[in-house]
Structures are given as structure tokens and as C-alpha cells.
Amino acid sequence: MTSCELAQDPDTAPGTVDRDEPAPDAVPRRSRRWPGRRAVGLAAGAVVTAGLIATITVLASDLYERRAVEHAEQQALAAAQQYAAILTSVDSAHLDENFEAVLDGATGEFKKMYSESSNHLKQLLIDNDAKADGKVVAAGIKSASRDRVEVMLFVDQEVSNKHLPEPRLDRSRIIMTMNKVDGRWLAGDVVVP
Q1: Predicted pLDDT at 27
Q2: CB 178 within 8 A of CB 76
Q3: What burial class does residue 139 get, using C-beta atoms within 10 Å of its C-beta: 0-12 exposed, 13-18 middle, 19+ buried?
Q4: What pLDDT score was predicted for residue 6?
Q5: Is 80 exposed, middle or buried (0-12, 13-18, 19+ CB in 10 A)?
Q6: Are 142 and 178 a contacting pair, CB within 8 Å?
Q7: N-term to C-term CA, the chain
Q8: Displacement of CA 176 from its chain's centroid (Å)
Q9: How far apart are CA 52 and CA 41, in angstroms?
Q10: 56-74 pLDDT tens trace
Q11: CA angle, corner 150, sides to 144 and 151, nearest 5?
């Protein structure tokens, strides 16, 4: 066999590869191609699904937060209406009970201020034989979050004392900030503009 023949005979030529069999270190032809339509479709589906899940999560979180704030509004509004009636109703014959109820529904600076002024206020009410009966006629939410709600209340208050034996009707607007403290809605600020 000549060197030409050796070069043409794949079985005898050193370093030659049979063209019918793939070389052991050669990469199969399929893996060198671009991904097929199915793979692209699956990837696009995964991206769309991930986007939908993210959108649903954000919307669910937003809905949960809105419902939590709405629930806070309802609870704080009811507590503010009840507290406004307590705050604007007084009887000089039952001042200790009145003041105890006011302080029980208060918190923060308002509670501190009311507590500090209560002795002077008690004496003034006793000296004048004062009575008042407050009723909330309208109320609404001014602003709200989960643990702080600002409520505007309109209160009619019948007031009488030893100088004014016939009750007089006073109409007041009260802005009350309700704070959630240990599961209770308490008045943290009361403003009568």
C-alpha cells in the first residue's frame, strides 16, 4: 500500500475519522441549533405567567390594604361617635364617672392635657351646677390609615347651668384623631375649630 492509498483508506490512515460515525468529542448537531418554537413558546409562557403572578400579588396586596383601612375607618368612626357623646355630656352630680369615662377613651397628649386640667374643670362645673347632653348628628372620615383615623363630627349639645336653667342648644364641629392602641380606638387629639 502506498502512502496515497493509506491516506484514502480510513481504516488504515492514522488520525482520520470515519464520516459515517460522529467523532467522540463532537457536539451533536441538534444542540448547536437555535431553540425550537416549542422552547420559545414555553419560555414566553413562563414570562407571561410570572408577570401575571406578580400583578395578582400586587393587586391582592393593594386590596388587602384597602380593606384593612376601610375596616379601621368603620371601627374608628364608631368609637369617635361614642366618645364624642361621652366628651360632650356631663352632669355635675356624676363628675367622677364622667371624667373617668373621658380619660378611659383618651390617649397621648390629649389624655395628658385633659387629666391635668380636670381638677380645675371639675370645680368650675360644680360651682355652676352645669349639665350638658351631647348627641352626634353627623360624622365622616377626614383621613385614614390602619392605625390612625381623623374624624370630623357635628355635635348638638344641650347645655344648662344655674345661670341658664333652660337648656340652650350649642352646635359644634369637632375634629378627632383616633389612634389604635392595644386593639382599642382612642382619642389622641380633639380640636374644636
Answers
A1: 53
A2: yes
A3: middle
A4: 47
A5: buried
A6: no
A7: 117
A8: 19
A9: 16
A10: 887 887 788 889 999 999 9
A11: 115
Closest CA to 189 of 154, 151, 140: 151
- Which amino acid is residue 143, in one-letter code? S
Query: What's the one-letter identity of residue 99?
Result: F
Helix/strand/coil (H/E/C) assignment for every residue in 70-109: HHHHHHHHHHHHHHHHHHCCEEHHHHHHHHHHHHHCECHH
Longest dimension (CA), the chain: 141
What residues does 139 pair with on adjacent strands?
A: 153
Question: Which residues touch 162 (CB under 8 Å, ≥6 apart)?
Answer: 128, 129
Residue 131: per-residue pLDDT: 95
Amino acid (one-letter) located at 141: I
Q: In DSSP terms, which residues pair with 157 in a beta bridge?
A: 134, 170
User: Domains (ranges, CATH) in the chain?
Assistant: 75-191 (3.10.450.50)
Q: In the numeric block, which cell numbers belong to residue 178?
A: 383616633
Q: How far is CA 126 from the centre of its chain?
A: 44
* Number of neighbouring beta carbons within 10 Å of residue 83: 26
Residue 183: phi and psi, rounded to 5, are 85, 0
pLDDT tens figures, 98-149: 999 999 999 999 999 999 998 888 989 999 999 999 999 999 999 999 999 9
Per the confidence metrics, is the pTM higher than 0.85? no
